[in-house]
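Students often ask why we bother encoding 3D structure as a string. The short answer is that it lets us treat folding as translation between two languages. Here is a chain of 162 residues written in the first language.
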Amino acid sequence: MKKHVVSLLVIGAAVVTAAPAVGAAPACQPGQTPGAAPLYCVPASTPETATAASRGTSKALSKLKLSQLQAKQRVSLPVVFAAPGTLTVTVSARLGGRTVVIGRATATSTNAGAATVKLVLSKAGRAALKQHQGALTLSVSATFKPADGGVTTKATSKTKLR
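And here it is in the second language, the structure alphabet:
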């Protein structure tokens, strides 16, 4: 009886060593992460780029006064790319019961690092800003699409201009 138990353990050990262990990561290429099952790899998503861009853009916009933004047609904003890809930033505001797109910016980076996006104010956005008086809450939405084909991520933050 011991012989059968020993032979089953050896066969079981051989099977376990040949198959990947549950939860073990396969050998993925750089820029990829293990998928849900340990049999394939997927491109790594970088949600930190969209989140950082949204927060960074909000912070840069909050340093401006409403009167300064009203006088400009475009605003340069600093962003940091965590990975190569395309970043799209949309700034909108709720005015008179409707949402008005104040401006949009798109930047593409071939490597990770700091960059600048130019927020171009829309005609409707400029008109809405000129008519508005008092404090204004802006919603900043950032969408990041990695160059390696990873998952597109989106983040939103708000800032108030006075």
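Translate back mentally: Residues 1-26, 33-45 have pLDDT under 50 and may be disordered. Keep this in mind for the problem set.
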